Known about the structure:
44% helix, 5-stranded mixed sheet, 14% strand, alpha/beta, Nitrilase/N-carbamoyl-D-aminoacid amidohydrolase, 16 helices, 6-stranded mixed sheet
Amino acid sequence: MILSLVASTLSGALFSFSFAPARLDLVAWIGLVPFFWALGRSPTRAHAALFGFVFGFAFSLLDVSWVYRTLLIHGHFAPLPALFTLLGMVTTLALFPACFASALDMIGRRGYGPAIVAPFLWVLFEYLRTVALTGFPWDLAGYSQADRLLVVQVADLTGIYGVSFLIVLVNATVWEACERLAARRGPKWGMIAAAVCSLILALGYGWIRSGQFPRAQESGGTCMVGLLQANIPQELKWEDTAREFTFQTYEKLGQEAVDQGARLLVWPETAAPVMFGGRDNGWRRPGEISMRLKVPMLVGAPSVKLIRNEIHYFNSAFLVDGDSLRYRYDKVHLVPFGEYMPLSRLLPIGPGIAAREADYSPGEEMTVMKMGGCPPFSVLICYEAIFPDLSRSALNQGSGLLVNITNDGWFGATAAPYQHLQMARIRSVENRVWLVRCANTGISAIIDPVGRIVDQIPLNRQGILVQTVPSAKGARAFYTRFGDVFAWACIAIALGIGLLAWKRPITRQARL
């Protein structure tokens, strides 16, 4: 029992090292083995669930520890409430691997090996984490391989879930092979061959697809985009005395980008320190800057609208062209507790941490923006980039470029900005489009359809990126057109095996 708890904890910690900031991505391919070892020795299903919970708790505690700092510094929480909030979040996330372990134990006791069942079950519970309670698909297993470009190319067929499937398949196969060798039984060569062939096929597919998309310097295009990373400290940007400094900084960076040929400037999320559409006419300043620089600008800013005699606040992006607002996009998928407070009518404890006047309201749909010389593009604000459906929706409405604006200044010099960037990269691969990412304090980046980072500005640096983005070719990836068919197939298979297992008698008693 104690050894199993230690193994589960170790496995969760090991698995977290495959993500930023450590980025020991190869660890992901064996990091689950101690966890599977513990599950193979669980005396009851309740013990298996406990081992799954411990694994998930250890993983999430290390993976999202940055939440504590954000609550402490920007949420103005006292240390103890911030700690309990983090632990509550980690506990909730740990329930998903606990359910995975319980289901795997139930099925395993009825004669189905983990190498057969575990990958399908894992995808099921990752998908649930993506959609349940507004979803929080932060650092799904497959994201650990964002730097392994040959591995992640399969995402244009399967989404990120296909990469997660491969990782769990290899882990489960390694564990089962080691168990059989330890018991002096012959390995199941068919099982090993299936895992090896799956990995080889994925790598071969990745090699072929990578070659079909040339590198940036080989690509043509007329859309010259300039990203402005002003690196305005989060605690300073909303001070009234700093407003003029903020606008002057963006105008100076914008001029540098225009001098390098930029024809579209991109500001980060909520970069304009004023409420667009409000009584304060300061919201017109970006338009004035656009007129002086003689280029359109995509500007992130909070905004206010009167809807049916009620005031609504939004986290928005505006395409400003001189003195006109050509397009606006209101963020669709808001951050609970950050941009709005769930159950606020039952628990009136104030707005979310990032809200300015009151809770933000969600927008209604993705917006496709059009500008001469550039492919039609849509905006993903902040952590909308970790939800695949939003990118798919934009592409299916006619976008040929994704623009992710974010303010990761909330997180400081923690793992979060690096993790956020790694997840955003996969949207390019899934949909075979360019993605430009503009962050207030970093990390701003230009990402091509293979997931290569063409150029970037490091964290906590001020600077610009100017890059020609090729026009869209009109071809849409399989994943863009058909979505999560792979995930749904895995879910159907997992439920089918579970139903068959439920009807079978128990054939294995786990060792203590």
